[in-house]
Design a protein that fits this description.
Elements: H1 4-14, H2 18-28, E1 36-38, H3 40-46, H4 72-85, H5 87-92, E2 94-96, E3 101-102, H6 114-121, H7 125-138, H8 142-146, H9 150-158, H10 167-178
Antiparallel strand pairs: 1-2, 2-3
Helix pairs in contact: 1-2, 1-7, 2-10, 9-10
Length: 186
Amino acid sequence: MISIADCQACADELGLDPKIIQTVARVEGTGDTNQFLYEPHIFSRLTNHIYDAEYPELSYPEWDRSKYPPTKLTRQIQFERVVRLDAMRAYESTSWGIFQIMGFNHKICKYKSALEMAIDLKSGYQPNIVAFGRMIRNMGLIDTLRNHEWAKFARSYNGPGYKLNNYHLKLAAEWDSLNHRVDSNG
């Protein structure tokens, strides 16, 4: 899991408490730089629904948690199938790394493609932290995080369904937890 020290340079650059960056990382992911989640409803939208009828397990118009494969292996198999349909849109329809940054955000994170972003985010903590910093700067979310406006941040970062996953409540709880820990490692 990322530490306060891992987050310090980015936090200094953005004028944030490094625990804010750590909070988002802990809520969004497991600390695994190889973490990913393919989102079939995003793929459906990005491909104008052309695969929905023929590949309903890979492309569907509405978010549905019950349709997600249950294990990392089955998610990897699903993703590989989608890549064969449309690789660019598959990478853009997937969230990557410890901050689970959606591939379609590659440009605001300063990458040429979602594939380039995915490869870089898999390489270590620092590329993840740098990409997250670029993203929140370019989305205008620094003050939102600084002010602990968790619902506003979650709405922008996770989309309109953030309440279904209680992202705003998880962020508030993790922030509170980090600020009440005694250890210095965070």
